[in-house]
């Protein structure tokens, strides 16, 4: 259990040290934006 906690803490630290200009952060942000827009379009389309 301690090993899992240590590994996940290291992953969180690495994610927190991601600067906003990195390529991965930009791609992740754009993908989330597309998913939000698609979810909104779905809700509008299926609304009674």
Would you give an account of this structure?
By secondary structure, the chain is mainly α. It has a domain of 29 residues. 81% of the residues lie in helices and 0% in strands. It is built from two helices and no strands. The chain is elongated, with a radius of gyration of 17 Å. 0% of the residues are buried. The model has no long low-confidence stretch (mean pLDDT 78).
Quick one: overall form?
elongated
Terminal CA distance: 48 Å
Beta-strand content: under 5%
Largest sheet entry:
none
The number of E-state strands comes to 0
Output the structural class.
Answer: mainly alpha
Q: Rg, please?
A: 17 Å
Low-confidence stretches: none
What is the chain-wise order of helices and strands?
HH
Fraction of residues in H or I helices? over 70%
> How many H/I helical runs?
2
Mean pLDDT: 78
């Amino acid at each position: 259990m301690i090993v899992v906690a240590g590994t996940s803490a290291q992953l969180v630290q690495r994610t927190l040290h991601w600067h906003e200009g990195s390529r991965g952060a930009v791609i992740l942000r754009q993908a989330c934006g597309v998913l939000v827009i698609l979810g909104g379009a779905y809700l509008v389309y299926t609304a009674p």
